[in-house]
Write a structure and sequence with these properties.
The complex is a heterodimer. By secondary structure, chain A is an alpha+beta fold. Chain A is built from three helices and four strands, in the order E-E-H-H-E-E-H. In chain A, strand 3 and strand 4 form a beta hairpin. Chain B has a ten-stranded mixed beta sheet with strand order 11-12-8-7-1-2-3-6-4-18, sandwiched between helices. In chain B, strands 5, 14, 15, 16 and 17 form a five-stranded antiparallel beta sheet that branches. The two termini of chain B are about 20 Å apart. The chains are: A alpha+beta, B alpha+beta.
Chain lengths: ~110, ~450
C-alpha cells in the first residue's frame, strides 16, 4: 500500500532546507509508521531531490514524524531555477512511497 | 479592553496568511467573529527585500501593496466593533504605512490611534560587520556591493508597548510571524517576558494562526482522502485563548473550510525543523508536548506548548541582487510528445552553446514528466497526452537572460514538429540569506502617528 493510505503530509521551506511532516490518520498506526518510515528510506525514495542529509524528529503525542531535508531547494527558494522553488510538491511525492500494511488491530 | 481587568478569554482572528491573500474572510471575521484582535501576516522571506527596492525608488513607498485595500475594507467594521489590528504590512516602511493608514482613518472619520514599530532595519550594522551567512558559512563581504536590505526578526516587545499605550492599529516591518499573535496575548493577559512556558504556548498559538486559511482547511484538501467543504468561501481562523494559554482553534459556522485535529497538526509542523527547539526572538519554543484535541466539529483545543530562554542573537534576513533568471517554455502534445520535448531541450542547449550565451546554471525540464521530482520517482505510467518543455538559466547579464527564452521561442519555426504556446520571461533575482546579529545591536521601538 502507499503511505497515503495511512498518513497525510505538508511541506514547509526555510532557505535551502525543506521539512515534510508525516501524520498518521489513525494514531494507532504511529508505531508502524515509525518502523517503516526511517530517515534512510525517505532519503532513498526522494533520491536526487535531497542533496544533503535527512533528519527525522518524532512527535508521539501527535502520532507524527517530521523530516528535515537539507540542500533540497536548489540553493534556496529565492534563487532556485526549479519550477516549484518552494518544494511544495514534495509531500505528495513522499505519500507515494510503498509501505507494508499495518496490523488492523493497531500497534502491538 | 480595560487594561486593569484581565480578560477571561481573548479572541484572535487571522486576517491574512500572505501578502496577496483574500480580503473578504477578514471582513467576515471582523463582522461576526466577536474578535478582540485581527492580525494580518503579510510578509514572506523575500517580500521585504522587494519592498526595500520599492522604498528606494520612492521614500513614501515600501509598505504592502494591498495595505490600502485591506484597511478600507476592514477599518469601518473593526472600529465599530472595537477590534484592534496588528499587522506586518509596514514591510520596508512601517512609518509610511502608518501615515497612509492615518489618512484613511481621517477620511473615514474613525477615532483610531495608530502606531508604527521600527528598528528591524539593520542594514547599516550588517554592512559594517564581517558576518557570515548562516546556511552556507560564507562571509557577506563578497556580496557587500549587492546587498539591498537587512531586516531583523523582532519579537513581541515593541508591539506590546504600542498596545499597552493604547494603539488600535499597530503596523510593523519584519517581526517573527508568531510574535504578531503573541503580542496581543502578552498585552491582554499581562504575561511576563520571562514566563517561558506561557511564551512557548503563545508561540504555538501564533504558529497555528499565522497562515490564516492553512489551519481551516486551506492547503489540505485531497479528493477521496481529505475532504474540505466550500473552499471558495474558506473561512479564516479564530483562536479563543484562555488566561492559562489554552487555545481553541475555530472558524465562523457559516464560513467554508473545516478545523480538525488533522488540519491543526499539519499547520503546527509547517516550516518547523527541530520541534523541540523552534527558535523565536522571545523564546525557544518546544512543540513536543503539544496535544491536539477535537472537542466538537470545527473546535480544536491545543495545549502543551512549552519554552525556554531565547538565544543571544536575532535572525536577520539579508537581501542581495544575484543576477538574472531567463526562462522559456513550449508545449508538445499527442503521440511522441515527450520525445519531441526532449529533442527541443537538446536543441536549446546546443543553441545556447553555439551562440555564446553564458549561464552559471541551466535547468531543462519536461513539465508533465520530470519538472517537480527530476528522474527520482518511477511514478509515471505510460506517456502523458501533453507536455511542456522548460528551460531556465542563471545569468550575470539581462541580455543573456533574454537569449534563453528567445532560443525556446525560435523552436516555433526551427524546432521539432507541433510546438505551440511558447512563452518567455526574465526576472532579476533578489536572493535572501540569513545572518545572526547579537541582540544588543537591534533596538526596536514604536511611535504613534498624527491623525
Amino acid at each position: 500500500m502507499r503511505l497515503r493510505e495511512i498518513a497525510h503530509s505538508r511541506t514547509g521551506d526555510k532557505g535551502n532546507t525543506l521539512n515534510v511532516s508525516v501524520i498518521c490518520r489513525e494514531p494507532g498506526h504511529f508505531g508502524h509508521l515509525r518502523a517503516e518510515l526511517t530517515a534512510e528510506r525517505v532519503k532513498a525514495w526522494l533520491g536526487e531531490i535531497v542533496r544533503g542529509d535527512v533528519i527525522r524528529y518524532e512527535l508521539p503525542k501527535l502520532a507524527a514524524l517530521n523530516f528535515v531535508l537539507q540542500k533540497a531547494l536548489g540553493g534556496g527558494v529565492t534563487r532556485s531555477l526549479a519550477l516549484d522553488a518552494h518544494g511544495k510538491s514534495v509531500s505528495s511525492a513522499l505519500l507515494g512511497l510503498e509501505i507494508s500494511e499495518p496490523d488492523p488491530a493497531g500497534d502491538k | 479592553m480595560n487594561p486593569l481587568v484581565k480578560p477571561r478569554l481573548v479572541r484572535l482572528g487571522a486576517g491574512a496568511g500572505y501578502s496577496g491573500d483574500r480580503i473578504e474572510p477578514a471582513v467576515e471575521l471582523a463582522t461576526h467573529g466577536e474578535l478582540d484582535f485581527l492580525i494580518f501576516e503579510c510578509l514572506a522571506e523575500r517580500t521585504i527585500a522587494i519592498a526595500q527596492q520599492g522604498r528606494r525608488k520612492d521614500l513614501q513607498q515600501g509598505y504592502d501593496p494591498l495595505l490600502e485595500a485591506r484597511m478600507r475594507a476592514v477599518l469601518p467594521i473593526a472600529a465599530s466593533k472595537g477590534v484592534r489590528i496588528v499587522s506586518n504590512m509596514g514591510a520596508a516602511n512601517p512609518l509610511a504605512a502608518a501615515q497612509k493608514t492615518a489618512q484613511i482613518v481621517r477620511e473615514l472619520g474613525l477615532p483610531l490611534k495608530i502606531a508604527a514599530v521600527t528598528g528591524d532595519d539593520v542594514l547599516d550594522a550588517v554592512l559594517k560587520g564581517a558576518w557570515l551567512f548562516e546556511e552556507t558559512g560564507e562571509g557577506i563581504i563578497k556580496y557587500r556591493d549587492r546587498i539591498v536590505s537587512a531586516n531583523a526578526y523582532l519579537g513581541a516587545t515593541p508591539i506590546v508597548g504600542a498596545l499597552d499605550a493604547g494603539a488600535d492599529i499597530v503596523l510593523t516591518g519584519r517581526v517573527a510571524d508568531p510574535s504578531l499573535f503573541t503580542a496581543p496575548l502578552i498585552h491582554a493577559f499581562g504575561w511576563r517576558m520571562d514566563d517561558w512556558p506561557a511564551l512557548g504556548q503563545a508561540t504555538v498559538i501564533g504558529h497555528l494562526l499565522e497562515c490564516a486559511g492553512q489551519v481551516t482547511g486551506g492547503y489540505f484538501a485531497d479528493p477521496g482522502f481529505k475532504h474540505v467543504p466550500d473552499l471558495a468561501r474558506l473561512g479564516f481562523p479564530i483562536g479563543e485563548v484562555a488566561a492559562d494559554g489554552t487555545v481553541t482553534v475555530t472558524k465562523l459556522a457559516h464560513a467554508g473550510g473545516r478545523v480538525s485535529a488533522a488540519t491543526c497538526k499539519e499547520q503546527l509542523l509547517y516550516e518547523i525543523q527541530d520541534p523541540a527547539r523552534y527558535l523565536q526572538p522571545d523564546v525557544v519554543a518546544d512543540f513536543t508536548g503539544v496535544e491536539i484535541i477535537e472537542d466538537a466539529p470545527d473546535r480544536v483545543r491545543v495545549v502543551g506548548g512549552r519554552g525556554s530562554a531565547p538565544t543571544q542573537t536575532f535572525k536577520v534576513s539579508v537581501g542581495y541582487l544575484d543576477g538574472f533568471i531567463g526562462e522559456g517554455q513550449i508545449s508538445y502534445g499527442g503521440p511522441g510528445a515527450t520525445a519531441r520535448a526532449g529533442l527541443a531541450l537538446d536543441i536549446v542547449r546546443k543553441r545556447l552553446e553555439l551562440t555564446g550565451v553564458r549561464t552559471d546554471e541551466l535547468r531543462l525540464d519536461i513539465i508533465g514528466v520530470d519538472s517537480l521530482y527530476g528522474n527520482t520517482l518511477g511514478l509515471t505510467v505510460g506517456e502523458p497526452p501533453e507536455v511542456r518543455a522548460r528551460v531556465a538559466g542563471r545569468t550575470a547579464s539581462i541580455a543573456d537572460a533574454w537569449r534563453i527564452g528567445d532560443e525556446v521561442e525560435t523552436l516555433y519555426t526551427n524546432g521539432p514538429a507541433g510546438g505551440g504556446a511558447a512563452t518567455k520571461s526574465v526576472r532579476e533575482v533578489l536572493a535572501v540569506q540569513s545572518v545572526l546579529l547579537p541582540r544588543e545591536i537591534v533596538q526596536p521601538t514604536f511611535t504613534f502617528v498624527e491623525i
